[in-house]
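Quick log. Single chain, no ligands specified.
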Amino acid sequence: MENVLLVVSGPSGVGKGTIVKELLKKREDVALSISCTTRAPRVGEVHGREYYFLSKEDFFKRIEEKDFLEYDEHFGNFYGTPKSFVKERLKEKSVVLEIDVVGGLNAKKEIPETVLVMVVPPSGEELKRRLKGRGTESDGDIENRLARLEYELAQAEKYDYTVVNDTVENAVLAIEKIIEKEKSKRK
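-> predicted structure:
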């Protein structure tokens, strides 16, 4: 398989979403995986674009059928990466999963060729500045996210690559180089 299944993980506020968006703008040979969720669509979200919106019954059926690379529950809703979707997309393009560290490690168990990339901030202070700058979290939420930082960064040793997000451009370039390196290994 020449295409690469790439997991991008990292602490909240590190810039994963921005990096992935920029990567997708630059690379027509890379697609974003679309996750399944049991939560209701938000205004403007479209089934099959942001998520596949499933009933809990359908979600649990997929679990029984072993059709998730990884799944988890957050705030009473389930989220999962559909294995069938990913394998189908990999026939055409490399696929990026933007998921947490637990999900990334689970995806690698399911598909050992998965390439794990941990995005890290230049420093804890810079991450705190970015989280505050977003203006979307309370001080308590920011402290909770920073408390999880140590755990997430400790998982980096289980990842194949670590990319420091000093600037979005540098991080995207580093991930592009990882994709090319991994593709060349598979020829």
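The chain has one domain: 5-185.
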